[in-house]
Design a protein that fits this description.
The protein is α/β, with parallel strands linked by helices and 381 residues long. The chain is 45% helix and 10% strand. The chain has an eight-stranded parallel beta barrel with strand order 1-2-3-4-5-6-7-8, surrounded by six helices. α5 links the parallel β4 and β5. α4 crosses α5, α10 runs antiparallel to α11 and α10 packs antiparallel against α16. The longest helix is centred in the C-terminal third of the chain and has 19 residues. The N terminus and C terminus are likely disordered.
Length: 381
Amino acid sequence: MSRLLPSAVQQAEMNPSPLRVDGLVAAVYSPFASDGTLNLTVVPLQHRYLAQTGVEWAFVGGTTGESLSLTVAERKSLLEAWANTSTRLIAHCGAEALGDARELAAHAAAVGVAAVAAMPPTFFKPASADALALTIASICSAAPSKPCYYYHIPSMTGVATTFTMLDFVRAIEPRSPNFAGIKYTGMYTYPGMMDAEKVLNYREGKFEVFSGREEMMLQALSIGIKGHVGSQFNFAGDLYNRLRTGFARSGLTPATETRLRGLQALAVQLVDAWHDNSPTGVNGAKYLMNLAGVPVGDARLPSLPVASAAAKLRAAATTSVVGLQHRKSSCCAHEGHGTFHELNHRMQRRPKAGERVLKDVPPRQAEARRRAWVVCRVAGV
């Protein structure tokens, strides 16, 4: 009889635990060539850039990755390209057709991702917590050995505006043994942060909550969220890591608040730089990744090409993101002076854009130098 009982390994696979990420998960851009086709040769450059700025995780094919503008075949090939790197992966599998979402989830599990996630269909929307739970449970069941997360972004999906995520968690808990938690991007939509906190505290923290609003990282950290998914981590992971590790080390106290709030203010400036300077329909955030030296290209239609806004966005990146004009002139303007010179002096070769590697740099100096390099790359100087 005991032979028929599942082994400990099989039980773990049937009921996978939440990831419990303590760090940054970059919502990575899908790289396109000038003709709009996927350019998978850029993925290794994206991976290297993330590694150089302390980002070990990627959320592939989400909103930032323009998932619903890609075919199922393209989404599979994109995920396979990322699976060939050492970045740890969460694969977004949500789609308008439930069959497509299940196919993507099964494929992601076969590729070997750490977890899957899904937003719901957005045209024929789940109208209640039960309907949403049944939908997401069906997607989760296609990858039963992987932790499965719901991607809550009501500003884009229009779903879950009449019920809370706590209602949804209670509805899906008995229906999905591998449901692991929520990527909570609806922080701006009531009940937002307090709903996220209720989910985080439900059944003594049974489920994981990722913050999907990096510009609210300090608030998320204050309620106990440790994993953060965001697009800004593509090009400024080191800035956000400074904020995250600073909070973990000392908390928000009278002695640390000026520094930590200053870092959060820089993060908000980073969002403002592209948000306030992008014409309607233009993906300015993706352009910053190009400025940083990783050629991810334009967003795909129906987003508009960035060309007409390029000069304005570059100027915004140089002034408000760097905010820090003194850094631009002191360490970025020429390689013969300051941090940029020291960094290049320690490298064995001059790499291509996006391939700079820190060598022989003491750990305490490495972060400051990475930050200076990222600021220079985003500023385009």
